[in-house]
Amino acid sequence: MESRQARTRDGDFCPVRATLALVGQRWVPRILYELLDGKRRFNDLAATVGGCNSRTLRDRLKTLEEIGLVERHLVATMPPWVEYELTESGRELAQAMLPLAEWGREHMQSEMLSAVEG
User: Fold this and answer.
1) Prediction pTM value
2) Assigned domain for 17 exists
3) Hey, which of 66, 69, 85, 107 would disulfide with 39, CB 3.0 to 4.6 Å?
């Protein structure tokens, strides 16, 4: 995922910026977290992510699939359904975010969050 956000002032690619641009997208961290437990059907994922409309969820999943973090499986039953699961790379990213969540639980309080959100 190379975007303007992933570049330094002198135009060099920065992997930290690229990663933060990805996980900074609304719903992406939650989707990755929910898929850590394994395959999920679209509607189950929508229910557990909560608050994300279907179109946005579909778009985020499509992006995550395009960059190789999520796999989409069509289950050919009647009626057919779709399942999503993390790839190895997606699992690595989701697991890398877990220490951030732990740090937030230990150090961020609602007052601090208000100051950060500005």
Assistant:
1) 0.82
2) no
3) 85
